[in-house]
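The instructor's notes for this session suggest beginning with a concrete chain rather than abstract definitions. Hand out the sequence below and ask the class to guess, before any prediction is shown, which regions might be ordered.
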Amino acid sequence: MIGYVTLGTNDLERGGAFYESLLAVAGAKKISTTERMVVFGTRPDAPMLMICTPFDKQEATFGNGVMVALKVDSQEIVDQMHAKALELGGTDEGAPGPRGDSGAYFAYFRDLDGNKIAAFQMG
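After discussion, reveal the predicted structure:
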C-alpha cells in the first residue's frame, strides 16, 4: 500500500550521504537523484524512501510524533543500522532490543535533520 515516504532535509548532499550509507546496510541503494530529491530503495516497484528539500523553499523540519519504520530481515541488521546511524552523526532514540511480547525487535534513532526512524524485524 505504501509506495514511498518523503523526509525533508536542509542539506541534500549531507542527507543523501547519510541515507546512502545507512540504507546500504539493509540492501537498499540510491535509485534516482534530482536537484532537490534523492530516492532510495531495493527496486523501483517496491516501497521507497525519499529525502528532499521542501517544495515551498521553507526550512525542512521534522514532525513531532512522526516516524518512519524501516522493515529489515534480521535483528543483526537492526543492530547494524542503529550503529551506522550513530556513526554517521544520527542520535539515539532507543537502543536495539525486543519490544513487547510479539517477538518484535526495534531500534530508534534520528537522522541529521531530526527525523525519527525505526529499524525493525518482526518475530
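Then share the key points. The chain has a mean pLDDT of 96. The chain has two helices and eight strands.
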